[in-house]
Design brief:
Elements (H helix, E strand, L loop, with lengths): L3 H7 L4 H16 L11 E6 L7 H10 L3 E3 L1 H5 L9 H14 L2 E5 L4 H12 L4 E4 L10 E2 L14 H16 L1
Parallel strand pairs: 1-2, 1-3, 3-4
Antiparallel strand pairs: 4-5
Length: about 170
């Protein structure tokens, strides 16, 4: 049985609640709005450069799931229009992926997306697959079996099947 003092101590705000109360107090004093500070899961969104123009629909789709999209094309545009070495942008993408909670793959699979899938699995990140569209409400989740690989990969049907099998084994680990 808890004493009166123990019950009182359990009702004291924790550190996060205190910070939230402090923010609210300052906001009221200086008349500015307060937005939620509740953390969102971060989702690295992988897509082929072929579908660069779908980046906003992808971000909208993720936001509608109340998660935070980390979309390299929104951050770096199209390789910063080649103002810096593309490999530096790829390294930055890899670091962002490492910082995210999950990898969501949209649309056809390109070689960079293949790398991100394998890297994310190596980091034990959950991975989900989706179609791609210019409107967020047209995007749907798909299975690994439904993935389409870009023609520029120059992979035979047998090699694509082998990659899917290797990747499925990684997913099961």
């Amino acid at each position: 049985m808890q004493s009166g003092l123990d019950l009182h101590l359990n009702k004291l705000p924790n550190k996060e609640t205190k910070k939230s109360m402090e923010i609210q107090s300052i906001a009221e004093k200086f008349n500015f709005g307060v937005s939620s500070i509740k953390p969102l899961r971060t989702i690295f969104t992988a897509q082929s450069k072929t579908f660069f123009y779908c980046k906003e629909a992808i971000c909208e789709f993720v936001f509608k799931k109340e998660m935070l999209p980390v979309n390299p094309f929104m951050i770096f545009d199209y390789f910063l229009n080649d103002r810096v070495d593309r490999d530096l942008i790829r390294r930055a993408n890899n670091q962002l992926l490492k910082m995210c909670d999950e990898l969501w793959v949209f649309g056809d699979i390109a070689n960079g997306v293949m790398f991100e899938m394998v890297y994310a699995k190596n980091l034990n990140k959950p991975i989900r697959f989706f179609t791609i569209a210019t409107k967020s409400d047209e995007i749907m989740e798909i299975s690994l079996d439904d993935l389409v690989f870009e023609n520029e990969l120059v992979l035979s049907d047998e090699e694509i099947m082998e990659f899917k099998q290797v990747f499925m084994r990684l997913m099961d680990e």
